[in-house]
Design brief:
Number of strands: 2
Mean pLDDT: 95
Order of helices and strands: HHHEEH
Radius of gyration: 16 Å
Shape: globular
Strand order of the largest sheet: 1-2
Helix content: 40-55%
Length: 172
């Protein structure tokens, strides 16, 4: 598998663009709606957004050596208490992802990544490039769930097609 720094920058930009659109969509929800259980895997819009934020932080701790988020997967849904709190933390994390991607060199994406997985209860190892692709795929997967919940809530969900991403920022 060949994953390049350019791919990582493109996906970091896509991530930031998508999350800015989610922020705008969240602003159209009534106060209680982000926490309303909508039958999704993580329940609510905010819980799913929190899980995604936690996932990005745990992967960035592995890729960039930043501090890992507190708790394990079962605590991911409570990472922030409100949409505005999520927005602040999302902005910070998206900035970290963008800076990491912009500093990458091809050699930084070679080899294996070894980490302890609390979910699996053991040490794991996988090609680093695959782990990077997984992080970006995980983002897209859960934003798709949020997209469906926003649509069900009567809010126009963001444009999510990578081909329609603006060619100029801001990216976060």
């Amino acid at each position: 598998m060949i994953v390049t720094p350019d791919y990582c920058v493109m996906m970091a930009r896509y991530n930031g663009w998508q999350n800015r659109q989610l922020k705008a969509a969240f602003a159209k929800l009534d106060t209680a709606e982000p926490k309303q259980d909508r039958g999704a895997f993580f329940g609510s819009i905010l819980a799913t957004a929190n899980h995604l934020l936690w996932g990005d932080r745990i992967w960035m701790s592995r890729f960039a050596g930043s501090a890992p988020p507190a708790g394990g997967i079962t605590e991911t849904t409570d990472l922030t208490a409100s949409g505005p709190a999520w927005e602040v933390e999302r902005f910070r994390t998206d900035g970290e992802i963008m800076l990491w991607a912009e500093r990458l060199r091809a050699v930084d994406l070679a080899g294996d990544l070894t980490w302890y997985s609390g979910a699996a209860g053991r040490e794991m190892a996988a090609p680093l490039a695959m782990c990077v692709v997984h992080m970006f795929n995980h983002q897209t997967h859960h934003r798709g769930q949020i997209h469906a919940m926003l649509t069900a809530a009567g809010v126009k969900a963001p444009v999510s097609d990578l081909a329609f991403m603006p060619t100029e920022g801001p990216w976060i």
